[in-house]
Amino acid sequence: MEKVKVGIIGPGNIGTDLMFKILKSKNLEMKTMTGIVESEGLKRAKEMGFNVSTEGAKAVAEDPEIKIVFEATSAPAHLANAPILKEAGKICFDMTPAAVGPYVVPCVNLDELGDDVDDYNMVTCGGQATVPIVSAINAVADVEYAEIVASISSKSAGPGTRANIDEFTQTTAHALKVVGGADTSKAIIILNPAEPPVMMANTIYCRVKNKDEEAIKKSVDEMVKKIQAYVPGYSLRVPPIFDDDRVTVIAQVIGAGDFLPEYSGNLDIINCAAVGAAEIVAERILKGVR
């Protein structure tokens, strides 16, 4: 079966987990892993039979076979790499908070984005976990204010996550408005040092203009099923709780364990979202739609 060849920039934990997820893909075929220095991630990819390089974005940009690229580095790195990939005609899924292209949360707005998009921003792990719930509530109750708290295990926050904390909160808060539909928003991240490591938990708090408890419950349940189609470890720890015009939901993410441990649900959900979106884009490429 024909597949679309892909490359990954960034051989760290996120990039390596992406590689393992792509191996299970219906429409994507892993070809190249690239970084800027020799690393365990590149060594692992080479041992698995894939092309590796220390030339960064250049390595995938110059390969005409590669149609889709996953950027798994940092926001500053993607700001530098984005023009290179664009000029080379690559379709990029940006795992950083750089937000060069439009935000995409697959179950909310992927179908609304045109086929001319060449840089899909995957928001943040917290955004992938919470924006869909805010969107579901907003669809039936009109969210005036949304606030989310993403609590993740400190062990699952690598150097990239820690270096991008400010971008995480800004990007997530913005996506709650742009994609989720909230009028105003706020995002907070907590790195929990507990042992044993905790699973990713996301508290979503919304103040609504038109409270309809049954409609909100139904809308949230339907959205959770859509998320679970590409993130099997997603579930509600606490279903919608109502207090006057306020709605609170707590969602949990357990990682699939493809490469990273189950407590790294924060990394798993953004990778699942990226691969899920790339599957759809790849299917369009294979059908000649784009």
Detailed description of the structure:
This protein has helices at 13-22, 40-47, 57-61, 75-87, 106-109, 125-141, 159-163, 165-178, 213-228, 265-286, and strands at 4-9, 28-34, 51-53, 68-71, 91-94, 119-121, 143-153, 184-192, 200-208, 234-243, 246-253. The chain is globular. The protein folds into two domains: 4-122 and 269-286, 3-Layer(aba) Sandwich (Rossmann fold); 125-262, Dihydrodipicolinate Reductase, domain 2, CATH 3.30.360.10. It is an alpha/beta fold and 290 residues long. The protein contains ten helices and eleven strands. The strands form two sheets. It has a six-stranded parallel β-sheet, with helices on both faces.
List its salient traits.
Dihydrodipicolinate Reductase, domain 2; alpha/beta; Rossmann fold; five-stranded mixed β-sheet; 10 helices; single chain; 2 domains; six-stranded parallel β-sheet; globular; 290 residues
CATH T-level topology of the largest domain: Dihydrodipicolinate Reductase, domain 2
Oligomer: single chain
Distance from N terminus to C terminus (CA atoms, Å) equals: 19 Å
Low-confidence regions: none
- Domains counted in the coordinates: how many? 2
Question: Using only CA atoms, what is the Rg?
Answer: 18 Å
CATH superfamily of the largest domain: Dihydrodipicolinate Reductase, domain 2
User: What characterizes the major β-sheet?
Assistant: 6 strands, parallel
Please give the CATH class of the largest domain: Alpha Beta
Number of helices: 10
**Helix-strand topology string:** EHEHEHEHEHEHEHHEEHEEH
Please provide the count of β strands. 11
pLDDT averaged over residues? 96
Shape annotation: globular
Q: Per CATH, which architecture of the largest domain?
A: 2-Layer Sandwich
Structural class: alpha/beta
Q: How much helix, percentage-wise, in residues? A: 25-40%
Q: How do the strands line up in the largest sheet?
A: 3-2-1-4-5-6
Give the percentage of residues in beta strands: 25-35%
